[in-house]
Specification:
Distance between the termini: 22 Å
CATH architecture: 3-Layer(bba) Sandwich
Low-confidence stretches: none
CATH superfamily: Pyruvoyl-Dependent Histidine Decarboxylase, subunit B
Radius of gyration: 17 Å
Structural class: alpha+beta
Number of helices: 4
CATH topology: Pyruvoyl-Dependent Histidine Decarboxylase, Chain B
Number of domains: 1
Shape: flat
CATH class: Alpha Beta
Strand order of the largest sheet: 2-5-9-1-4
Length: about 190
């Protein structure tokens, strides 16, 4: 059996370079997570997991460590193209129940729009397992109000990074991540 993380932190970054890979590396550096061997995982915010600040979460990691993360990234070398990457979080009111994380990457969306969409995705996934009724045809704000009233979803949030493609055609990369950490002795 694999480890169940006790903590998660959110991070984001942007990088630009003439090489796409280097641009991505610079985005990871900007996010503060380039020195780890990142393994992408999907969807589940573990039960009884604490949402930490990035500064707090980084204390539990060592350069070179294999680290699990839910991550979204995007890149463009098209001048003036707006790109975004976002990770949405939806947490249930009962911390012993698992929550959801979602990844979203897009073009032409602002931080606000991409972030709202990622939150909406995570909350919809959580709502389906909690038995919270929702109408997918309602607006994001209308659904968010319904979730709050249900008392089953306690919080939603997102981490989003956008960037506008470099005017000279350099690669622009954005990354957003929920990074899992092990907290010794459940501190």
């Amino acid at each position: 059996m694999g480890p169940i993380p006790k903590g998660t932190f959110l991070s984001k970054g942007v990088g630009r370079h003439r090489e796409k890979l280097t641009s991505f590396e610079l985005a990871l550096r900007s996010a503060g997570i380039a020195e780890f061997n990142l393994v992408r995982v999907k969807s589940i915010f573990p039960p009884n997991c604490k949402l930490l600040s990035q500064q707090e979460g980084l204390k539990y990691l060592t350069p070179g460590q294999i680290v699990f993360a839910v991550m979204s990234d995007n890149a463009t070398n098209e001048p003036h193209r707006l790109i975004a990457s976002s990770v949405g979080v939806a947490l249930p009111s009962n911390p012993a129940q698992y929550g959801y994380l979602s990844e979203h990457h897009s073009t032409g969306e602002t931080d606000q729009k991409a972030g709202d969409y990622a939150e909406d995705l995570a909350a919809m996934m959580l709502a389906t397992i909690l038995g919270v009724d929702f109408d997918p045809n309602l607006s994001y704000d209308e659904r968010k109000d319904l979730w709050r009233m249900s008392d089953k979803i306690v919080t939603t949030r997102n981490v989003t990074q956008s960037a506008i493609g470099d005017r000279d055609g350099l690669w622009s990369s954005v990354v957003a991540a929920a990074v899992f950490v092990d907290i010794p002795n459940g501190k």
